Amino acid sequence: MADDHGDRIAQFIARMTTALGPKGVSTDPVEIEPHIQDWRGRWKGSTPLLVKPASTEEVSAAMTLCAEYGLAVNPQGGNSGMVNGSVPEGEVLISLKRMNKVREVDVLNDAMTLEAGVILTKAQEIADQHERLFPLSLGAQGVAMVGGLISTNAGGVGVLRYGMMRDLVLGIEAVLPDGRVWNGLRGLRKDNTGYDLKHLFIGAEGTLGVVTAATLKLFPKPAVKETAWATVASPQKAVELLQLAKKASGGAVTSFEIVPKLGLELVLKHIPDTRDPLPTALPWRVLIELSLPRIDGAREIMEGMLGEALESEIIADVAICESEAQKAMCWKIRENIAVAEKAHGKALKHDVSVPVSRVAEFIERGTALAHQMQPGADVIAFGHVGDGNIHFNITPPAGADQDRFVEQDGLPMSKAVHDLIASLNGSISAEHGIGRLKRDELAWRKSAVEMDMMRAVKRALDPDGRMNPGRVL
Ligand code: FAD
Ligand code: 2HG
Ligand code: ZN
Fold it and tell me: What is the rounded average pLDDT of the residues 355-364?
């Protein structure tokens, strides 16, 4: 029996090699290694075969073969996902990394069509070369790929002004579990011809098919970005500052991120060449970015808003960035909190959202709850206040067994944090998705009706349940 299975897999690999050529497959453990563990080193998996198609036709051929052999499939982009969705557990691993072509840039339509393996920084560069902006921006942008960003409906630091990945996608091309290609690459802003199927694939985390290309929206490049780093006494003050900044800038706030003292300290400790832009004993900092269409008057808008904030004691102190280097330092600190936290150790991570009006209440009550349930634990609450999305991460008390904490001892605390989120009408996954990490919890937190609808969609597109089994549903 075992030999039969082994023979079948060997035959499958041989046929895949014939279909895609030697460059399109790998069983080399050294090459496979980085693909079968997650970014934070929490999960490790396995795969019988790494498949590396270079075109949609090759993805289709690979998926057709997987269907014929009844094999499960795990699509992978940059493998920077945070919810244990991109690490295979015995599935055939389809990496999109060789599908990295620019298919079209339609400047007059403010749109570009990229293959799924294009890395986010590359997508931003392509837009820039055409005097346009592709506004998605996040810490993993040097590795995360278009297909992964779409499949997780990624967020990041520009959502306040430009929306999530879902808001940036005009069209999608995807290969279905049976190998058929759906070409939905329409560059249209208006298209009411029935169900808008692209939205099923956005945020589906690879459970419905493989995204192979997408047509993405482009925006005008702002003439100037004004960046400031303010110190505030509490998250409530940060939310008040957000309201003031939105009003005073006429909606020009593109980023509004909160940084806690401990997050900053970890960055200064673990990330080379970083320094505190504005040393203070206060517990919170806010990074604000305004994007404006004209240089004239831009600084005055930022100064006027911050002057009012100082006067009304919303902020304690502020530094407006005077140079690109100063802006880069503020962003380096913000974008490295996750990296520094990783260097610090294991953490229970909660990627949660609440209405912006309740962010301060959540941080205050969540922190008290964590300290009460686990004395000595540290809370690192940071991120996208402007979207109501807080990364509420908890590290174990000094000396605790870190693995035991994240796998076992800390779980009642996680449940309590998510209960609090539910009571505030929030979400237990704001931008990272469900993966395997939150799959069981999703099933009991969502209503039966909502789960039924999701399962019906899954059955319709993937009747054999071979796409990313065990993730999301
Ligand atoms: P992967 O990790 O490879 O895959 C993610 C999921 O999508 C998996 O379920 C996978 O199976 C599926 N998938 C991948 N490609 C395809 C495809 N072509 N077709 C179908 N399914 C596919 N996320 C945010 O939203 N905001 C942030 O600010 C943010 N910051 C981060 C900072 C750091 C330092 C790190 C490490 C991660 C961060 N993330 C953030 C999480 C991560 O970068 C995003 O989830 C990103 O969208 C994942 O893209 P990827 O290409 O790495 O996808
Ligand atoms: C960020 O905003 C990322 O920096 C990572 O979404 C969040 O590590 C985290 O918890
Ligand atoms: Zn984030």
Answer: 98
List, in order, residues 6 or more apart from 225 with CB less than 8 Å away: 254, 289, 290, 291, 292, 327
For residue 437, the ligand closest to its alpha carbon is: 1
Q: Which fold has domain 224-338?
A: Alpha-Beta Plaits (3.30.70)
Please report, for the chain, how many H helices and E strands are present, in that order.
18, 18
Ligand with smallest separation from the Cα of 138: 1
Query: What CATH number has the domain spanning 345-434?
Result: 3.30.70.2740
Q: What is the pLDDT of residues 77-103, one digit of tens each?
A: 999 999 999 999 999 999 999 999 999
Ligand having the closest approach to the CA of 152 = 1
Ligand 2: nearest atom to the Cα of 391:
10
The pLDDT value given to residue 421 = 98
Nearest atom, ligand 1, residue 81 CA: 2
Fold of the 102-220 domain: 3.30.465
Taking the C-alpha atoms of residue 145 and residue 97, their distance in angstroms, rounded to an integer, is: 8
Residues with CB under 6 A from ligand 2: 139, 337-338, 349, 383, 391, 393
Q: Which atom of ligand 2 is nearest to the CA of 431?
A: 6
- Domains of the chain by residue range: 2-95, 102-220, 224-338, 345-434
In testing the pocket of ligand 2, which one of 337, 380, 393, 417 has its CB within 8 Å of the most ligand atoms?
337
CATH class of 2-95: alpha beta
> Does 224-338 match 345-434 in CATH topology?
yes
- The answer to pTM > 0.90 is yes
Mean pLDDT of 277-285: 96
385 lines ligand 1 (CB under 6 A): no
Gyration radius of the chain's alpha carbons: 23
**33-44 per-position pLDDT tens digit:** 999 999 999 999
| Cα four-point dihedral sign 321, 304, 220, 152 | positive
